[in-house]
Amino acid sequence: VCLTCCSRDVMVKVDQICHKNSIKFFTGDVFGYHGYMFADLGEHEFVEEKAKVAKASPGVGDGPDAKKIKLDSETTMVKKRVVFCQLKEALAVDWSGEKASAALKRTTPDYFLLQ
């Protein structure tokens, strides 16, 4: 479900219904130069490709031919799982706590503008 141009109450209500029924939810809006986007994907599983680089044996890298040696690289697939929070929880963050002070440094000022 995708919502735009809705009131905060409508977005929270629709997100609660979607979350309860395991339906992915997106909302967002733009106000001139400022905008926001929120996604509640519930429990989202995905696969990420990780590269493993094999090192060359010692002694092979001596001399002018060392630059021509290519390293073999392998990739492995790593399964990951992320649990998204609901919109109601994201809007109810207590910014006065100690945990919030670290997150506050990473939070764009636009977040508070849109609040």
From TrEMBL:
InterPro entries, A to Z: Ubiquitin-activating_enz
GO molecular function: ubiquitin-like modifier activating enzyme activity
Sections of the chain in a coiled coil: none
Official protein name in the record: SAE1 enzyme
